[in-house]
Amino acid sequence: MPNIIKHYKKAILLALPLALSACGDDTKEVIVEVEVPAPVPTPVDVSYDVTVINLTNGQPVSPPAVVLHADGNLWAVGQVPSVELERIAEVGDSESFLTLGMTSAGGEGPIMPGDQQTISVTIQDITDAKLTIAAMLGNTNDAFTGLNAWDLSQLEVGDSWTSNRPAYDAGTEKNSESAATVPGPAASGEGFNPTRDDTGFISMHPGVVSADDGLSTSALTVEHKFDNPVIRVRITRTE
């Protein structure tokens, strides 16, 4: 009887490796492929300082509108002015004009003769935006000045570019220079008027005549006259 028990114990022990081997044969290696998303790059700020200097003797310049956009023109000589530009040219209101691009920034107040103002504007990851500026000459009917779609790809960090800019006529209101139609401090007349009664297209401004030089209906004097350029613009890429 003890021999039989030993025999069965040996048989059981021999069977265990076979059972374990059989279990091993049934085990399959499963490879699960997990797609790992590429890391999202951190946005890089591209920033510019835009300095506007008033070169006139008696024309306040409205708070400049600085707009960065992808392509095209927000205004140009020979074009029909948009309502957004008309609001700047007739009353210095840039609120709607500032919505026309990818990003924008406006000045904080008028720039008086001889003064200057710096406006900072930032966009992410884009170094080839176009920069447009527009601001009104306050003691006029619809004169404005600025810069049209300047290519910012020309500037590396630390670079600056300077340009003297002339006055343009929006062509939306006759240059009557009357007390009723000039909104600036020289007359405090009407601002924006949606009715257009002039050429209807943007051109170079002919300048102010004034009452001193024979326009009897003019509310302006010789001090409000101007020669081109009327502003100096300096653009600096800061980052």
What would the keywords be for this entry?
Spondin_N, 4-stranded antiparallel sheet, Immunoglobulin-like, alpha+beta, Spondin domain-containing protein, elongated, 2 helices
Query: Roughly how much helix do the residues carry, as a percent range?
Result: 10-25%
Rg from Cα: 36 Å
Question: Could you give the distance between the termini?
Answer: 95 Å
The sequence of SSEs as H and E is HEEHEEEEEEEE
Q: How is the main sheet built?
A: 6 strands, antiparallel
Strand order of the largest sheet: 3-2-5-6-8-9
Number of helices: 2
Strand content: 25-35%
CATH class: Mainly Beta
Instruction: Specify the CATH architecture.
Output: Sandwich
Give the low-pLDDT segments: 1-23
Average pLDDT, to the nearest integer?
Answer: 90
Tally of individual domains: 1
Class computed from helices, strands and strand pairing: alpha+beta
CATH topology: Immunoglobulin-like
The outline comes out as elongated
Which quaternary structure do these chains form? single chain
Number of strands: 10
Topology overview:
Layout: H1 2-26, E1 45-54, E2 65-69, H2 83-91, E3 103-106, E4 116-124, E5 130-136, E6 143-151, E7 160-165, E8 167-169, E9 203-204, E10 231-237
Antiparallel strand pairs: 1-4, 1-10, 2-3, 2-5, 5-6, 6-8, 7-10, 8-9
Keywords: Signal
Organism: Paraglaciecola mesophila
InterPro entries: Spondin_N, Spondin_N_sf
